[in-house]
Amino acid sequence: MPNRIAKAAMTEGLADDQLHATHRHETLYRRWSDGGAGLLITGNVMIDHRVLERPGNVAIDPAPDLTKGKGELEGMVQLRAWAEAGTRNGNHLWMQISHAGRQSPRYVTTRPMGPSAVQLSLMGNYARPRALTEPEILDFIQRFANVARIAKEAGFTGVQVHGAHGYLLSSFLSPVTNQRTDRWGGALENRARFLFEVVRATRAAVGPEFPVAVKLNSDDFRKDGFTLDELCERGALAQ
Predict the structure, then answer these.
(1) Are 115 and 183 a contacting pair, CB within 8 Å?
(2) DSSP per position, 100-142
């Protein structure tokens, strides 16, 4: 990287009605690239068009078919233009890859998803989620990996897996929101399994040299949630 200044992810809400990137992404990231930061991280790029963090998210779904067919080809062209604009000054541009999980508001979906059917109580803005099945979890693991592969093909120079802020991967980590009794819940090793499998699949998809970052909270900041000690333990498990 040209320097150690990074612009953290901020959701843009600039996608078109097909959830593709637009010229507004190019304009914004061209300006940020001109600003001189060595690393720019995009806002949420979703792996599932049904469950967005907010209207206007870019979604790459279904990822394996993005480059097939007229509509998908247009989406790939715009991703390449976004990547080119955002790296024009020799800086890195990493795509943040995300699934909103239970934190997809009612005006986006009335059927959010989570590890368990634990309601998010925030001014009535979120519907009660349904618990994911294991086949859905396995599918999402591959979607994260496929989106990372497409990001690399489009010219992004790295990816950030979003495992923070209560979104899907984060909600699996927390014992408050993950009340499963199968291999995806319970002990920390099980709660972290989804995230670790996503990272492993993503690494396999992009190869050993492509940057793969993970965004994590240090603490749930709520009663009975995960703590800094568990965060450190997760790091030990990752080794």
Answers:
(1) no
(2) -TT---TTT-S--EESS-----STT-SPPPEEPPHHHHHHHHH
Cβ 98 vs Cβ 165: under 8 Å? no
What interhelical angle do 228-238 and 193-206 show, nearest 10? 40
- For residues 94 and 113, what is the distance between their CA atoms, to the nearest angstrom? 26
H or E stretch at 154? helix 134-154
Of 109, 110, 106, 111, nearest in space to 122 by CA = 106
Both structure tokens of 42: 């995009």
Token reading at 81: 């233009």
- CATH topology assigned to domain 6-238: TIM Barrel (3.20.20)
pTM assigned to the model? 0.91
pLDDT for 152-174, tens place per residue? 999 999 999 999 999 999 999 99
